[in-house]
Structure formats: C-alpha cells, structure tokens
Amino acid sequence: MHNSEKIIEQATAVLNANDHGYYTIPAANLYPHQWLWDSCFIAIGLRHLDIERAKIEILSLLRGQWKNGMIPHMIFTPGRAYKRDHNIWRSWVSPYAPEGVFTSGITQPPLLAEAIVRIGEKMTLLDRREWYRQVWRPLLAYHQWLYTDRDPHAEGLVLQIHPWETGLDNTPPWMSELHEHLLPWWIRGMQKTHTTGIMGLFRRDTRFVPANQRYSNIDAMALYDAQRRLRRKVYDIDKVLDHSLFAIEDLAFNSILVRANEHLLEIARSIRGHVPSDLLQRIDLTRASLEELWDPYTEQYYPRDFVTHKLITVPSIETLLPLYAGTVSKERAALLVKSIENEHVFGPGFPVPSVPLNTPWFNPERYWQGPVWFNTNWLIADGLRRYGYKDHAEALIEGSLELVQNGHFNEYFNPISGAPLGAANFSWTAALTIDWLKR
Ligand code: 9WN
C-alpha cells in the first residue's frame, strides 16, 4: 500500500473513532463535546470521504445557533455525565439560547462559510445550489450577528470577549493583556503566595495531557474566572462591555472573517441570496479596517484593544493570518512570508510554530505558545497559495505531513523535534491530513 493511502486509512480511523453520529468530537476524554471551528475543519476532511456526512457535521452545528444568530463555540454532548460541563456555561440563562441543547455562550472563529464552500466544491452545480440554499439563512444570520453584536461602533472589526473565542486559548497577545489588566485580586494573591498549585487538583485537562503542555494553573484560573464573569452578565454584550471585561479586536478572528465574508458573497451570488445593504457596507469596511491592525514600526499586524484602540504588539501565529484573509497588499504579504522563511522566527524544523522562536513567550511544548497546529498551517498554506507562493505552501504541507508519518495524529507538535503533543487521535489533525493528501 502506498504510504499516503495508509495515512488516509489511519486518519479515517481517527475520525470514525471520534464520530458521534452527527458530529465529531475533537478527541476522546479531553474534548467530549462539539466545537465550532473543529467541526468546520473536520467537515473539510470529511468531504473527501462522505459528502453527506460532511454536510451533517455542519448542519449539526446549526442546531446550536442562538435566536440572535450566534453560533456557539461549543455544543454539549447530552447526558448526566456532562452535567458539570453544562452547568459551567448554563446557556439557559440567556433568552437567546436555543431550546433542547446546551451550548456555551461565546463563539469561535467564523470558519463556517469556508467549510460550506469547501463541501460545495465537491458537488455538482445543482447539488451545490441546493446545499447553499439549505444553509443560507443561518449563515447570513450568523454574519449579521457578528456585526450587530460585536461591532457596536460600526468600525468594521469585530471584537471578542474571551480568549476561547479566538480558538487560540493561551496565545501570548491575549495572555499578556489578561496578566496586565484583568487578573482578579484573589488570583494575584494566590500568585504571590505560590498557592496556584491547588488549582491542579480541580483541573480535568491535566488528567489527560501533561501539565507542561497545557496552560498554566494561573492562566486556567484566569480563563475560568473570565468565563464566569460572562455568565454573570448572561452573555449580553451590552452588559459585558459596560463592565469593560475583555474586549479585543482579534487579528486571527478578523482575518478569518474577511475571508468568510468573501465566501458568504460567493454563496449569495450562486443562489441569488439577498445580502442586506448594511451588511455589504460592513463587509467592505472590514476589509479596509484590517489594515488598521498594521504596525509600521515592527512591520507586522497585531490584535487591538477595543476600548483604547492600542495595538497589542505581542507576536504570535495571529501575525500570519492576514495571509489567509487575502486582502492585504503583496508587499505586506511578502514581509510575512519572510518571517516564515526565517528559522529564528516562524521557520524552524517543523513549520509553523504558534509563537515565533525569537520572542520570550516561545515554549515548544506549551499549547498555543509554541507548538505547531495543523489548522493554522492549513489556513496559512491556503493563503500562501493564493498569494502565489506555491512552493512555500507545498513545503508547509509536506512539513506538516511529515509530522504524522508515524500515524500519530496529535493535537499539536513540537516545532523543533517534531514530537507529538497534547491529545492523541485529534480529529482536525486527521481531517486536514486527509484534505492535504487528497488535494
Ligand atoms: C476551549 C477543541 C478546542 C479547540 C481550541 C483549543 C481548545 C478548548 C480548551 O480545544 O480549546 O475552547 O479546552 O482549551 O484551543 O482551538 O477548538 O479542540
């Protein structure tokens, strides 16, 4: 058997093992629910295996849509065994939450339109139109919600209220903000008295993955504290902003939104769907506003604080995602590509580390603070290809595939040694491997 056939077979087995019938969990034990961007990446892989199942993966996400249009970042697996997880979020406190399913109260990067279009690519024109019609209303409602709820000043950039909304959890720009401005007194107290270790007793994640590969105890406490504050505000954006909790115009999220909007417009054209004129204006504005995140001094893009409009000049994998947006100038794209070529920045042995090597945050094993992730590689490879850097894209894909040659489809990998890290048998690693091998 050819090696790539064998890898596809192994990757398919991972997806089958994580299949809950109409949605796929990211990994057993650690992630027993459905996540928004995970299901989108998973569907992008599934489309090569079973188009109907790929559609179901997306449709199952829509069952969690809130009445205001939000697609939540998590939809919980039902059952008493997960009562504690349902209770952490208590989505029922919001009048907008859907009936009959428990969800989180925040969203995740808007990859939905990308997944819909990628599935559509595999269909005949007729079937594609039918598919697009089936998902059009919820997709449109989601994009409208992103603007009405998350761009209250009509600036074109949407804001995020929790690091989990970026999907990049402990990514340095968010963590540096959190440590500087948002640590509550009791966490600072525990930090000073070196008693954060106690948190280790309550953590579920570190039962499955070595603690040094996850976020630190202090970050875990801060993330859960921020989540609890959102719950207290019943996930109501006005109340959240009134208390100026976290509010960041995230670079990765907005880059993905730029592209998602392009897909939305493509879908609309294909089915003559009506896009309201205020949404069209906002879409144009987003494209232009992404450029406000450029810092001419360091020649990079960064996330921005929503209230102060100050760029958070801490580099991370986010830095490269404007390549995926596809709207930045060729000159700026070339500067980003240079940093991928540089082995001391984003170009070590195994590309692309989630934090550049030449920054103090870099740690080759800690979650979103250094390791290589397949989903961001997929987004960057796609961007490189569209900017004409075909060889760079191929090298990135080949480098990623090398990491799974031995059949370990882990959650993330050490960018220097290539060692597998985090959860084993991780769905999007398997799904995107399939997508690359079938390209
Ligand atoms: C919180 C499921 C998710 C991914 C995120 C990743 C991680 C959750 C966690 O797992 O986040 O949403 O428990 O840390 O950071 O990108 O969607 O795989």
Bound molecules: (2R)-2-(alpha-D-glucopyranosyloxy)-3-hydroxypropanoic acid
How can the largest sheet be summarized? 2 strands, antiparallel
The secondary structure category is mainly alpha
Determine the N-to-C terminus distance.
19 Å
Counting DSSP H or I runs of 4 or more residues, the number of helices is 18
Shape: globular
Rg, rounded, reads: 20 Å
Mean pLDDT: 96
Element order, helices and strands? HEHHEHHHHHHHHEHHEEEHHHHEEH
Low-confidence stretches: none
Q: Portion of residues in helices?
A: 40-55%
Number of strands: 8
Strand content: under 5%
What spatial order of strands do you see in the largest sheet?
1-2
Question: What are the SSEs and their pairings?
Answer:
Elements (H helix, E strand, L loop, with lengths): L2 H15 L16 E2 H11 L4 H12 L11 E2 L7 H7 L22 H10 L3 H26 L21 H11 L2 H8 L12 H4 L8 H16 L4 H6 L5 E2 L1 H21 L5 H13 L4 E2 L4 E2 L2 E2 L16 H4 L4 H12 L32 H13 L3 H14 L8 E2 L6 E2 L5 H11 L2
Antiparallel strand pairs: 1-2, 3-6, 4-5, 7-8
Bound molecules: (2R)-2-(alpha-D-glucopyranosyloxy)-3-hydroxypropanoic acid.
